[in-house]
Amino acid sequence: MATVIQVCSDVLCQFYKSQRKAVKNSNPQGFRLQRGRSHRLYSTRLWPVASIADIDSDSRPTWYYDSAAQKISFSAADGGDASLNTYCTPGGSSGVLGGASATDISIQGIESWYGDTGFNFNNCGSYEAVDCLAFGARDNGIAGDMSTGVEIRCESAANGNDGSNAHHQTTTLEDTTRNAVFLKIDAWCHDNYDDGDSLHERCQGTYLGGLFEYNGNRGIATAFGAHVTVRSAYSRKNGQNSRGVGITGEGFGVIGVTDGGEGGNGTQMECYDCISESDNYGFAAHSFGNIVRAFNCKTIDALIAAYSASEGDVYLQDCRDSGSATVKLEALGGTITVNNGVAVAW
After folding, report:
1. Fewer CB in a 10 Å sphere around the end CB: N or C, the chain?
2. Average pLDDT, stretch 167-174?
3. What does the pLDDT look like over 250-280, one tens digit per residue?
4. Residue 346 falls within a domain, yes or no?
5. Last residue of a domain, one of 88, 105, 139
6. What tens digit of pLDDT does each residue of 231-254 get?
7. Residue 153 domain-assigned (yes or no)
8. How far is 48 from 140, CA to CA, in rounded Å?
Protein backbone atom coordinates (compact mmCIF):
# COMPACT_ATOMS: atom_id res chain seq x y z
CA MET A 1 0.00 0.00 0.00
CA ALA A 2 1.39 3.39 -1.01
CA THR A 3 0.40 6.97 -0.17
CA VAL A 4 -0.91 8.96 -3.13
CA ILE A 5 -0.87 12.75 -3.42
CA GLN A 6 -3.55 12.90 -6.10
CA VAL A 7 -5.56 10.51 -8.23
CA CYS A 8 -7.03 12.46 -11.14
CA SER A 9 -8.60 9.65 -13.14
CA ASP A 10 -10.49 6.38 -12.94
CA VAL A 11 -7.68 4.80 -14.95
CA LEU A 12 -4.43 3.53 -13.47
CA CYS A 13 -1.73 2.14 -15.73
CA GLN A 14 1.19 -0.05 -14.80
CA PHE A 15 4.19 1.10 -16.78
CA TYR A 16 6.84 -1.48 -17.60
CA LYS A 17 10.47 -0.49 -17.94
CA SER A 18 10.89 -2.94 -20.79
CA GLN A 19 8.18 -1.11 -22.78
CA ARG A 20 7.28 -4.35 -24.55
CA LYS A 21 6.05 -6.50 -21.72
CA ALA A 22 2.37 -5.65 -21.44
CA VAL A 23 0.06 -7.57 -23.79
CA LYS A 24 1.30 -9.99 -26.43
CA ASN A 25 -0.05 -10.09 -29.95
CA SER A 26 -2.28 -13.15 -30.12
CA ASN A 27 -1.32 -13.97 -33.70
CA PRO A 28 2.36 -14.98 -33.86
CA GLN A 29 2.38 -14.29 -37.61
CA GLY A 30 1.23 -10.76 -36.94
CA PHE A 31 -0.55 -8.17 -39.09
CA ARG A 32 1.30 -5.58 -41.13
CA LEU A 33 -0.16 -2.65 -39.17
CA GLN A 34 1.18 -4.09 -35.91
CA ARG A 35 4.53 -2.85 -37.20
CA GLY A 36 6.33 -6.08 -36.34
CA ARG A 37 5.83 -5.58 -32.62
CA SER A 38 5.67 -8.64 -30.40
CA HIS A 39 3.37 -6.82 -27.92
CA ARG A 40 0.43 -4.53 -28.64
CA LEU A 41 0.73 -2.33 -25.53
CA TYR A 42 3.47 -0.50 -23.68
CA SER A 43 1.69 -0.72 -20.35
CA THR A 44 -1.19 -2.59 -18.74
CA ARG A 45 -4.46 -1.06 -17.62
CA LEU A 46 -5.47 -1.65 -14.01
CA TRP A 47 -9.22 -1.71 -13.37
CA PRO A 48 -10.87 0.09 -10.40
CA VAL A 49 -12.67 -2.04 -7.81
CA ALA A 50 -14.78 -1.25 -4.76
CA SER A 51 -12.58 -2.66 -1.99
CA ILE A 52 -9.22 -4.15 -1.12
CA ALA A 53 -10.89 -7.55 -0.90
CA ASP A 54 -11.93 -7.21 -4.54
CA ILE A 55 -8.28 -6.89 -5.54
CA ASP A 56 -7.62 -10.41 -4.27
CA SER A 57 -10.74 -11.93 -5.82
CA ASP A 58 -10.63 -10.25 -9.25
CA SER A 59 -8.78 -12.04 -12.04
CA ARG A 60 -7.87 -8.72 -13.67
CA PRO A 61 -5.07 -6.40 -12.52
CA THR A 62 -6.93 -3.92 -10.30
CA TRP A 63 -6.63 -1.01 -7.89
CA TYR A 64 -8.61 0.51 -5.04
CA TYR A 65 -8.28 4.06 -3.72
CA ASP A 66 -9.19 4.85 -0.12
CA SER A 67 -9.97 8.57 -0.35
CA ALA A 68 -10.21 9.03 3.42
CA ALA A 69 -6.78 7.59 4.04
CA GLN A 70 -5.37 8.90 0.75
CA LYS A 71 -3.93 5.50 0.02
CA ILE A 72 -4.07 3.26 -2.99
CA SER A 73 -3.77 -0.51 -3.20
CA PHE A 74 -3.14 -2.40 -6.41
CA SER A 75 -2.06 -5.69 -7.90
CA ALA A 76 0.67 -6.36 -10.43
CA ALA A 77 -0.43 -7.41 -13.88
CA ASP A 78 2.00 -10.33 -13.83
CA GLY A 79 0.95 -11.42 -10.34
CA GLY A 80 4.31 -10.50 -8.84
CA ASP A 81 5.41 -7.80 -6.41
CA ALA A 82 3.42 -4.68 -7.31
CA SER A 83 5.94 -2.39 -5.62
CA LEU A 84 8.57 -3.24 -8.23
CA ASN A 85 6.69 -1.51 -11.05
CA THR A 86 6.00 2.10 -12.00
CA TYR A 87 2.40 3.40 -12.17
CA CYS A 88 0.77 6.47 -13.66
CA THR A 89 -2.64 8.12 -14.01
CA PRO A 90 -3.65 9.71 -17.35
CA GLY A 91 -4.66 13.35 -17.37
CA GLY A 92 -3.31 16.85 -17.85
CA SER A 93 -2.31 18.25 -21.21
CA SER A 94 -3.06 16.98 -24.71
CA GLY A 95 -0.44 16.49 -27.38
CA VAL A 96 -2.25 19.10 -29.51
CA LEU A 97 -4.99 21.49 -28.43
CA GLY A 98 -7.17 22.99 -31.17
CA GLY A 99 -10.07 25.38 -30.67
CA ALA A 100 -9.65 27.97 -33.44
CA SER A 101 -11.76 27.51 -36.58
CA ALA A 102 -9.26 29.51 -38.65
CA THR A 103 -6.41 27.18 -37.67
CA ASP A 104 -5.07 24.39 -39.87
CA ILE A 105 -2.78 21.95 -38.07
CA SER A 106 -0.36 19.37 -39.49
CA ILE A 107 1.72 17.03 -37.33
CA GLN A 108 3.95 14.08 -38.15
CA GLY A 109 5.73 11.52 -35.99
CA ILE A 110 4.41 12.90 -32.69
CA GLU A 111 3.61 10.67 -29.69
CA SER A 112 1.21 11.60 -26.90
CA TRP A 113 1.31 9.42 -23.77
CA TYR A 114 -1.18 9.47 -20.88
CA GLY A 115 -2.70 12.87 -21.68
CA ASP A 116 -6.25 14.09 -21.17
CA THR A 117 -6.91 13.66 -24.92
CA GLY A 118 -4.08 12.38 -27.05
CA PHE A 119 -4.54 14.92 -29.85
CA ASN A 120 -7.36 17.42 -29.48
CA PHE A 121 -8.26 18.85 -32.88
CA ASN A 122 -11.75 19.94 -31.81
CA ASN A 123 -13.04 23.08 -33.57
CA CYS A 124 -10.04 23.43 -35.88
CA GLY A 125 -10.46 24.44 -39.49
CA SER A 126 -8.66 21.25 -40.52
CA TYR A 127 -5.95 18.90 -39.34
CA GLU A 128 -3.52 16.30 -40.66
CA ALA A 129 -1.83 13.67 -38.50
CA VAL A 130 0.76 11.33 -40.03
CA ASP A 131 2.51 8.45 -38.22
CA CYS A 132 1.38 9.64 -34.79
CA LEU A 133 0.70 7.69 -31.59
CA ALA A 134 -2.04 8.48 -29.04
CA PHE A 135 -1.52 6.16 -26.09
CA GLY A 136 -3.29 5.84 -22.77
CA ALA A 137 -5.25 9.11 -22.80
CA ARG A 138 -7.95 9.60 -20.20
CA ASP A 139 -10.53 10.40 -22.93
CA ASN A 140 -10.17 9.95 -26.72
CA GLY A 141 -6.90 9.26 -28.47
CA ILE A 142 -7.75 11.60 -31.37
CA ALA A 143 -10.66 14.05 -31.18
CA GLY A 144 -11.99 16.00 -34.18
CA ASP A 145 -15.32 17.54 -33.16
CA MET A 146 -16.57 20.22 -35.57
CA SER A 147 -13.40 19.88 -37.61
CA THR A 148 -12.28 18.02 -40.73
CA GLY A 149 -9.18 15.90 -40.91
CA VAL A 150 -6.80 13.37 -42.41
CA GLU A 151 -5.19 10.61 -40.34
CA ILE A 152 -2.49 8.50 -42.00
CA ARG A 153 -0.91 5.44 -40.32
CA CYS A 154 -1.78 6.67 -36.84
CA GLU A 155 -1.98 4.35 -33.84
CA SER A 156 -4.53 4.97 -31.08
CA ALA A 157 -4.28 2.52 -28.22
CA ALA A 158 -5.46 1.99 -24.63
CA ASN A 159 -7.36 5.28 -24.48
CA GLY A 160 -10.13 5.89 -21.95
CA ASN A 161 -12.89 6.30 -24.54
CA ASP A 162 -12.38 5.86 -28.32
CA GLY A 163 -9.23 5.56 -30.33
CA SER A 164 -10.46 8.29 -32.69
CA ASN A 165 -13.73 10.18 -32.26
CA ALA A 166 -15.58 13.07 -33.90
CA HIS A 167 -18.98 14.79 -33.62
CA HIS A 168 -20.60 17.53 -35.69
CA GLN A 169 -23.64 18.63 -33.75
CA THR A 170 -25.95 21.48 -34.66
CA THR A 171 -29.54 22.48 -34.13
CA THR A 172 -29.41 25.09 -36.89
CA LEU A 173 -30.72 23.47 -40.06
CA GLU A 174 -29.07 26.13 -42.21
CA ASP A 175 -25.72 24.76 -41.04
CA THR A 176 -26.35 21.26 -42.39
CA THR A 177 -24.66 22.06 -45.70
CA ARG A 178 -21.28 21.90 -43.96
CA ASN A 179 -20.28 18.50 -42.67
CA ALA A 180 -17.16 17.30 -40.93
CA VAL A 181 -15.20 15.19 -43.43
CA PHE A 182 -12.51 12.67 -42.49
CA LEU A 183 -10.06 10.47 -44.39
CA LYS A 184 -8.39 7.71 -42.37
CA ILE A 185 -5.68 5.58 -43.97
CA ASP A 186 -4.17 2.45 -42.37
CA ALA A 187 -5.20 3.28 -38.81
CA TRP A 188 -4.33 0.88 -35.99
CA CYS A 189 -6.92 1.38 -33.26
CA HIS A 190 -6.71 -1.17 -30.47
CA ASP A 191 -7.35 -1.85 -26.80
CA ASN A 192 -9.42 1.32 -26.33
CA TYR A 193 -12.13 1.35 -23.66
CA ASP A 194 -15.03 1.92 -26.10
CA ASP A 195 -14.67 1.97 -29.90
CA GLY A 196 -11.62 1.80 -32.11
CA ASP A 197 -12.96 4.65 -34.24
CA SER A 198 -16.35 6.37 -34.20
CA LEU A 199 -17.91 9.17 -36.22
CA HIS A 200 -21.17 10.77 -35.16
CA GLU A 201 -23.70 13.43 -36.15
CA ARG A 202 -23.38 14.34 -39.85
CA CYS A 203 -19.71 13.39 -40.05
CA GLN A 204 -18.63 11.91 -43.36
CA GLY A 205 -15.78 9.44 -43.32
CA THR A 206 -13.67 7.34 -45.66
CA TYR A 207 -11.55 4.54 -44.21
CA LEU A 208 -8.86 2.97 -46.39
CA GLY A 209 -7.36 -0.12 -44.80
CA GLY A 210 -6.87 -0.20 -41.07
CA LEU A 211 -6.75 -2.72 -38.21
CA PHE A 212 -9.31 -2.36 -35.40
CA GLU A 213 -8.83 -4.92 -32.65
CA TYR A 214 -9.35 -5.68 -28.96
CA ASN A 215 -11.44 -2.58 -28.32
CA GLY A 216 -13.86 -2.69 -25.42
CA ASN A 217 -16.90 -2.24 -27.64
CA ARG A 218 -16.72 -1.86 -31.45
CA GLY A 219 -14.06 -1.82 -34.12
CA ILE A 220 -15.60 0.95 -36.27
CA ALA A 221 -18.79 2.64 -35.05
CA THR A 222 -20.88 4.91 -37.26
CA ALA A 223 -23.46 6.65 -35.10
CA PHE A 224 -26.36 9.09 -34.89
CA GLY A 225 -26.34 10.41 -38.45
CA ALA A 226 -22.80 9.81 -39.72
CA HIS A 227 -22.14 8.48 -43.23
CA VAL A 228 -19.02 6.46 -44.02
CA THR A 229 -17.31 4.27 -46.60
CA VAL A 230 -14.89 1.57 -45.43
CA ARG A 231 -12.54 -0.23 -47.79
CA SER A 232 -10.30 -3.21 -47.01
CA ALA A 233 -10.39 -2.80 -43.22
CA TYR A 234 -9.82 -5.65 -40.77
CA SER A 235 -11.69 -5.86 -37.45
CA ARG A 236 -11.06 -8.52 -34.83
CA LYS A 237 -11.82 -9.53 -31.25
CA ASN A 238 -13.78 -6.44 -30.26
CA GLY A 239 -16.18 -6.35 -27.30
CA GLN A 240 -14.35 -9.01 -25.31
CA ASN A 241 -11.91 -7.27 -22.99
CA SER A 242 -12.22 -6.71 -19.24
CA ARG A 243 -14.59 -3.75 -19.52
CA GLY A 244 -17.52 -6.03 -18.67
CA VAL A 245 -20.47 -3.58 -19.06
CA GLY A 246 -22.32 -1.82 -21.89
CA ILE A 247 -20.86 -3.99 -24.63
CA THR A 248 -22.30 -5.03 -27.98
CA GLY A 249 -19.02 -5.67 -29.79
CA GLU A 250 -19.69 -5.03 -33.48
CA GLY A 251 -16.75 -5.17 -35.83
CA PHE A 252 -18.46 -2.79 -38.26
CA GLY A 253 -21.48 -1.31 -36.49
CA VAL A 254 -24.08 1.34 -37.26
CA ILE A 255 -25.87 2.53 -34.14
CA GLY A 256 -28.10 5.27 -32.79
CA VAL A 257 -31.16 7.09 -34.13
CA THR A 258 -30.53 10.31 -36.03
CA ASP A 259 -31.60 13.52 -34.30
CA GLY A 260 -34.29 15.01 -36.56
CA GLY A 261 -33.42 18.50 -35.31
CA GLU A 262 -30.10 18.25 -37.13
CA GLY A 263 -31.68 17.59 -40.50
CA GLY A 264 -30.01 14.23 -40.96
CA ASN A 265 -31.51 11.32 -42.89
CA GLY A 266 -30.38 8.06 -41.36
CA THR A 267 -26.95 6.61 -40.62
CA GLN A 268 -25.12 4.65 -43.30
CA MET A 269 -21.99 2.53 -43.63
CA GLU A 270 -20.78 1.03 -46.90
CA CYS A 271 -18.12 -1.68 -46.60
CA TYR A 272 -16.04 -3.03 -49.47
CA ASP A 273 -13.72 -6.06 -49.09
CA CYS A 274 -13.70 -5.85 -45.30
CA ILE A 275 -13.11 -8.69 -42.82
CA SER A 276 -14.50 -9.25 -39.33
CA GLU A 277 -12.80 -11.97 -37.30
CA SER A 278 -14.04 -13.14 -33.88
CA ASP A 279 -16.05 -10.00 -33.12
CA ASN A 280 -19.32 -10.43 -31.23
CA TYR A 281 -21.13 -9.21 -34.36
CA GLY A 282 -19.44 -8.86 -37.72
CA PHE A 283 -21.52 -6.31 -39.66
CA ALA A 284 -24.53 -4.83 -37.87
CA ALA A 285 -27.27 -2.19 -38.11
CA HIS A 286 -28.62 -1.89 -34.58
CA SER A 287 -30.99 1.10 -34.53
CA PHE A 288 -33.90 2.51 -36.53
CA GLY A 289 -32.77 4.21 -39.74
CA ASN A 290 -29.40 2.42 -39.73
CA ILE A 291 -28.16 0.89 -42.98
CA VAL A 292 -25.13 -1.30 -43.64
CA ARG A 293 -24.23 -2.20 -47.21
CA ALA A 294 -21.48 -4.82 -47.45
CA PHE A 295 -19.88 -5.79 -50.75
CA ASN A 296 -17.60 -8.82 -50.96
CA CYS A 297 -17.05 -8.83 -47.19
CA LYS A 298 -16.11 -11.77 -44.94
CA THR A 299 -16.89 -12.83 -41.40
CA ILE A 300 -14.91 -15.39 -39.42
CA ASP A 301 -16.02 -16.97 -36.13
CA ALA A 302 -18.43 -14.26 -34.96
CA LEU A 303 -19.37 -15.02 -31.35
CA ILE A 304 -23.05 -13.97 -31.67
CA ALA A 305 -23.85 -13.26 -35.32
CA ALA A 306 -21.94 -12.61 -38.52
CA TYR A 307 -24.58 -10.24 -39.96
CA SER A 308 -27.13 -8.62 -37.65
CA ALA A 309 -30.08 -6.26 -38.17
CA SER A 310 -32.02 -5.01 -35.16
CA GLU A 311 -34.45 -2.26 -36.29
CA GLY A 312 -31.98 -1.39 -39.05
CA ASP A 313 -31.29 -2.92 -42.46
CA VAL A 314 -28.29 -4.84 -43.79
CA TYR A 315 -27.71 -5.42 -47.52
CA LEU A 316 -25.18 -8.07 -48.51
CA GLN A 317 -23.65 -8.47 -51.94
CA ASP A 318 -21.42 -11.52 -52.46
CA CYS A 319 -20.51 -11.80 -48.76
CA ARG A 320 -19.31 -14.97 -47.01
CA ASP A 321 -19.00 -16.46 -43.54
CA SER A 322 -16.86 -19.08 -41.87
CA GLY A 323 -17.59 -20.63 -38.48
CA SER A 324 -19.83 -17.99 -36.89
CA ALA A 325 -22.32 -18.94 -34.16
CA THR A 326 -25.17 -17.49 -36.28
CA VAL A 327 -24.82 -16.25 -39.83
CA LYS A 328 -27.90 -13.98 -40.08
CA LEU A 329 -29.74 -12.47 -37.11
CA GLU A 330 -32.85 -10.30 -37.58
CA ALA A 331 -34.72 -8.67 -34.66
CA LEU A 332 -37.23 -5.89 -33.93
CA GLY A 333 -38.19 -5.49 -37.57
CA GLY A 334 -34.65 -5.35 -38.89
CA THR A 335 -33.99 -6.97 -42.26
CA ILE A 336 -31.05 -8.64 -43.98
CA THR A 337 -31.15 -8.76 -47.78
CA VAL A 338 -28.76 -11.14 -49.53
CA ASN A 339 -27.79 -10.93 -53.19
CA ASN A 340 -25.13 -13.36 -54.30
CA GLY A 341 -24.07 -12.96 -57.90
CA VAL A 342 -23.06 -15.66 -60.32
CA ALA A 343 -19.93 -15.78 -62.40
CA VAL A 344 -20.25 -13.89 -65.64
CA ALA A 345 -19.75 -16.24 -68.55
CA TRP A 346 -16.91 -15.57 -70.94
Report:
1. C
2. 69
3. 999 999 988 766 666 789 999 999 999 999 9
4. no
5. 88
6. 999 999 999 876 666 789 999 999
7. no
8. 19
Q: Residue 198: beta bridge partners?
A: 165, 221
- Domain holding 51, by residue range, is 2-88
Q: What is the tally of structural domains in the chain?
A: 2
Q: What is the pTM of this model?
A: 0.89
Domain assignment of residue 125, yes or no: no
Instruction: Give the CATH number, domain containing residue 183.
Output: 2.160.20
Domain boundary (55, 88, 121) is at 88
The CA R_g of the chain, rounded to the nearest whole Å, is 21
Residues 191 and 283 in one domain: yes
pLDDT at 291 over 60: yes
